[in-house]
Specification:
Blueprint: H1 2-7, E1 21-26, E2 32-37, E3 52-54, E4 60-62, H2 65-82, E5 88-90, E6 107-113, E7 118-124
Parallel strand pairs: 1-5
Antiparallel strand pairs: 1-2, 2-6, 3-4, 6-7
């Protein structure tokens, strides 16, 4: 991980390296696959921002304690899948690498060849 992080040149439009959760696994061809992801902010209400549920008639109501607790659980599960900013980690399988649709440079995919010690690809994810 350290060798890859020292050598990688992030694509134009990417954030700073320490903004990303850096996730690594060995691919089926023996190359190291990495996905760098900028973790999203919590969706849970805090003291400064309330929580509301949109109703069918386009009105809204405050979230119940149960709904807030469910959002907390969802945020914790997402944080475990994505990882924390500044964290580097090896995963057991490349199928565990996090993925975010339409992330742009919020998700960078990297392919590293350990035999040649070369980074073969470092690209931002697409956007819809």
């Amino acid at each position: 991980m350290q060798a890859i992080e020292a050598a990688v040149v992030l694509p134009e439009g990417a954030g700073a390296l320490d903004e990303y959760s850096r996730n690594y696994a060995v691919g089926p061809d023996g190359k190291v696959l990495a996905r760098y992801v900028i973790p999203s902010e919590s969706s849970v209400a805090d003291e400064d921002h309330g929580c509301e549920v949109m109703l069918a008639n386009f009105d809204s109501r405050p979230c119940t304690d149960e709904e807030v607790a469910e959002m907390v659980r969802d945020d914790q599960a997402r944080a475990e899948r994505i990882g924390k900013a500044g964290q580097s980690r090896w995963l057991e399988s490349y199928s565990e690498l996090p993925f975010v649709l339409d992330a742009g440079c919020g998700l960078i995919e990297i392919v590293y060849n350990p035999h040649s010690k070369q980074i073969e690809r470092a690209e931002c994810n697409g956007e819809a």
